[in-house]
Amino acid sequence: MSLVDLQPAPIAFTAPLSRPDPPLDFYDDGLNESIFPDLPPLRHGHPDVHLRDGILAGHALADPDAEPAFFVADLSQVYAQHLRWRACLPQIQPFYAVKCNPDPYVLRLLAALGTGFDCASNGEISQVLAVGGIDPSRIIFANPCKAVSFVRNAARQRVDLMTFDNADELYKIARAHPRAQLVIRILTDDTKSLCQLGIKFGAPLATVPGLLAKASELGLAVVGVSFHVGSGCYDPSVYTDAIARARMAFDMGADAGYRFTLLDVGGGFEDTHFEQAASFLSDAIDMHFPDRGEIKIIAEPGRFYVSKAFNLATNIIARRAPLTDAAVDGAADQPAVMYYINDGVYGAFNCILFDHQVVHPYVLSMGGSFHIAAGEPLHTSSVWGPTCDSIDCVCPMAQLPRALRVGDWLGFPNMGAYTVCAASMFNGFQVSKVVYTTGSFRAAEVRGILAKFAEDIRVLEARDV
Ligand SMILES: *Cc1c(COP(=O)(O)O)cnc(C)c1O
């Protein structure tokens, strides 16, 4: 392929656009009011409808090449994951890891569903408490290395449950929050995970007795044990070993004169391996904690709840032929064309760098149509972000239709975890906005849960005034 072949796309989305779904206004049946007046509207309908509507809305603007990329968040997916959690792990209360995606609707839905929250900073604690209706006892400050001012702030906010894995942390807590309820974070095998956390956090079992002795000497209350098998754990059998270690830490607690009542099994849950992980975990808990009468079990899932709930729509803003011999030769294993889209690794796709993700584009619209024929001829392509940095590669290799042009749209599924939250505005690019929908899975239920929660908060606030 030569650059001559790279013709611009025809201006798309004019009158005879094929459109299988009704327009957004169709859903505006009076139920589309904002349940939370300060948040963007909560829409109805399948996320695909909103992906298409967002594309059409972009094209209503004057400049077809300047459409912003946008997310569509399907809250019913978050609800579906919660039901899955409750079905598989009814004895474990999830404390959602806020860092994974502190989206205001996600936080409200989970709060309404009764989860707790795993916060790592003052900012996350404030964000969760600002929702209203969430008691500080539903927060675990699960960062084992906190600035002393953060510990002091937690005390002020009545957030008592917090993790530690080193002696300095104990001195800080003894000074700044002596009534804290401490959880010792132990080191477990995290080699089967995308993001290994053990290189930074977790007390090796050998150090646990010393730490507990120190805590006891300082008069601190240690109430339980936590671990994290690493984020994006692809071998669920690691929970078995982790629970065995937690058992040993419980016994060390008894030796130090503590009576632990909390087991925190951390995060790491993956969508695809969830049922399997849940079964390993339940079996291990039954084996090592057979008579767990007074022991409360919690977890800190992040990714599991939100990954599937967010789709990202990106616009192809430029395209060119790569300057390699392979492109000239048309070798199938080398990209024949480079597409540039309007979000990249400094934005939503930071998950590629920080979270070791591999993302997969699909065609949302091409040549003014949402219908992509199954037999479209493909070619090997690469997909790049909009910044001027060459590290900004979204997808080094993808099979995409030959007919794809500037102005067409690419979608990316599973963009809910570790994406929006770490996006930067490097090079002056905006962070992609989110369109919210109750989706298509028990949507009325999701809306009802949120509406009731909003009402409960209003009642609480009226009472406090
Ligand atoms: C990041 C993190 C989590 C969430 O991990 P996931 O893999 O997203 O489930 C939970 N707990 C702690 C302490 C974390 O740092």
- The quaternary organization reads as single chain
Q: Give the domain tally.
A: 2
Quickly give the structural class: alpha/beta
CATH-scheme architecture of the largest domain: Alpha-Beta Barrel
Task: Report Rg.
Answer: 25 Å
Would you mind describing this structure in some detail?
The protein has 465 residues and is α/β, with parallel strands linked by helices. It folds into two domains: 23-74 and 308-437, Lyase, Ornithine Decarboxylase, Chain A, domain 1, CATH 2.40.37.10; 76-306, Alpha-Beta Barrel (TIM Barrel). Helix content is 31%, strand content 20%. The chain has 13 helices and 19 strands. It has helices spanning 47-60, 75-88, 104-113, 122-131, 148-156, 167-176, 208-217, 238-255, 274-288, 303-306, 325-329, 350-354, 443-464; strands spanning 42-43, 70-74, 92-97, 116-119, 139-141, 161-164, 181-185, 193-195, 221-226, 231-233, 262-264, 296-299, 310-320, 337-341, 362-365, 378-384, 393-401, 409-412, 433-437. Helix 4 links the parallel strand 4 and strand 5 (139-141). Helix 2 (75-88) packs parallel to helix 3 (104-113), helix 3 (104-113) crosses helix 13 (443-464) and helix 8 runs parallel beside helix 9 (274-288). It binds pyridoxal-5'-phosphate. Pyridoxal-5'-phosphate binds at residues 97, 99-100, 118, 142, 228, 231-232, 266-269, 300-304.
